[in-house]
Amino acid sequence: MRPPRPTIALYLLSFLLSSLVLHRPTFAIKKSYVVYLGSHSHPPNLSELELNQVTENHYEFLGSFLGSHEVAKESIFYSYTRHINGFAATLEEEEAAQIAKHPKVVSIFLNQGRKLHTTRSWDFLGLEHDGVTPPNSIWNKARYGEDTIIGNLDTDQRSQRESCNSFGDKILHERKLIGARYFNKGFAAVSAPLNSSFDSPRDNEGHGSHTLSTAAGNFVTGASVFGFGNGTAKGGSPKARVAAYKVCWPPVNGSECFEADILAAFDIAIHDGVDVLSVSLGGDPTAFFNDSTAIGAFHAVKHGIVVVCSAGNSGPDEGTVSNIAPWQITVGASTIDREFPSYVTLGNWKHFRGQSLSAVALPGKRFYRLISAAAAKAANASVQEALLCKAGTLDPRKVKGKILACLRGDNARVDKGEQALLAGAVGMILANNELNGNEIISDPHVLPASHINFTDGALVFAYINSTKSPRAYIKRPTTQLGTKPAPFMAAFSSKGPNTITPDILKPDITAPGVSIIAAYTEAQGPTNQMFDQRRVLFNSVSGTSMSCPHISGICGLLKTLYPHWSPAAIKSAIMTTATTQDNSREPVLNASFYRATPFSYGAGHVNPNCAMDPGLVYDLSLNDYLNFLCSNGYNETQIEMFSEETYKCPKPAISLTNLNYPSITVPKLNGSLVVTRTVKNVGTPDSIQVERNLPK
């Protein structure tokens, strides 16, 4: 007898399995959020018991949504207890949406990531001349920033640096560095589990050491990068004390710094009593109440702290500037009058002036075979990816022993050098793309290299394609001072207009941010690349991250000179005394050597010595900022919670063009418009003569 066919049994089994799959319980994905409740109404100097009660109140508030105090306690990983009221917690999207509806909540936003955005620059800015401080220098007048505390939100700093020693003596660095804290719970909420090495404020990346020493580093003689740029390194306020707040960590999906950590650092820095906060990080522009840097900066400014932020490195595209709140000082990046020329000579004896900080030179004064990275592509790589010299795109059999010509873009400039070396190249010519124009940067490449501009790069590639046996030689770099034109705007420096409030010009100011030499960490090589085993005490780095601490240092000097000036008055002094001319007395140019605009440099290039005597300042009160928010559509309840001030929106609403800002921006001018400003005399004359130079 044949056995029964299993059709019915198999069908029933299949039905049961599919039913199990269909009815399997689903679990909502939790994400980390910042729940912002505004300002605290309590006095700042609370006992530990009272601070704990604030945290308990946060548990109770969240527990009312999650069902229990215990679940809320597990969910919350930050409780902001001192000046900023709120907490950070892991929540389901639906839970976050319900919390956002509560009348006590100003805003709730994702714990998103943000990015980290010298021996010569202070001489270029006129604070010294050939190592001598002139009598009229702001350094002399402001006692080098004495009695000022500058805080830095970054990757913190490497504590053993001489830059962090006390000014003028051998006392240990603790006299200079008065505090170092770390904040990593927001980072931990979006990354893999952390080990104990993350529970430290020490800088293992180099960025924080560089920015902090630029703002307030001590005088250190013999500073150089592989012998290039040798001189005395120093910060803008070399006698100031410093406090470091580590909020940035190894990248997660391209971001190093997270909203929850940034807000926690602001809350503590305000309590610590810093005078200036330097913030070289940022992200895409967003609504003010969804931006931890804008929120933290407002609370800091409310307590008299000047907050200086980088504009971002997303240029030269328009509308890319970040950190756009009017209570922040937003800084673009420009060049100084020092370069490290490295000449490229082709087989047809044409010479091109590039730049580099390569420590090694090509052996022998002879030509080497030259190949375009596009012609050296690996079998599985596209021509465009190979031309950019990305990892895994180059064929070592084609590259070995040759100079490789790579195109700038996408991956880091120093990464291209490392990929060239790994593929067997003896040298690299890095050519700009059209967007980067004439902006060539001196990087500490791992092999002999020279970075050349777009026009010269096009000629190099044309030469390669014109001959069967292209050859080239790269000369070792040298140090050259007094170069012209300087400054000109860096191509990477993010530009306006301000996409959130076009009536406010951003950036506010520009400062040196290209090839800036300052202290560095020994935990990484100067390129921060995996295979770079070299170690340096000082490094050359470029970015608005480098220009930001220049302004922070200058703010420290002004704080020492005028301790009772408001943050807005200090900003006004810096902006209204800026220059829009270079060292050839010509208008400041962009990286393509066309005339730059205020959307690139704001009020202009900083002029520190003039900033100490602005004559008139455009001051702003807390209420002015609240009126600004009201005119931007925020309601009275939100604004009162934000500021912890009784507030009513003026009727009619104040025009945004009439905010008493040191610059005037009219986004859409139709016909005539009356714009008002109020100035305060902070100079010695009793009367001021007014001259108008209106735009045509």
UniProtKB/TrEMBL annotation:
Keywords: Apoplast, Glycoprotein, Hydrolase, Protease, Serine protease, Signal. Coiled coil: none annotated. The active site is at 154 (charge relay system), 207 (charge relay system), 545 (charge relay system). Residues 32-117 form the Inhibitor I9 domain. SUPFAM superfamilies: PA domain, Subtilisin-like. It comes from the Eukaryota. Residues 198-602 form the Peptidase S8/S53 domain. Its main location: secreted. The keyword Coiled coil does not apply. Residues 385-458 form the PA domain. Gene3D superfamilies: 2.60.40.2310, 3.50.30.30, Peptidase S8 propeptide/proteinase inhibitor I9 (3.30.70.80), Peptidase S8/S53 domain (3.40.50.200). This is Subtilisin-like protease SBT5.3. GO terms for cellular component: apoplast. It comes from Prunus avium (Cherry). It holds the Pfam family Inhibitor_I9. It is found in: Secreted, Extracellular space, Apoplast. The keyword Cytoplasm does not apply. Belongs to the peptidase S8 family.
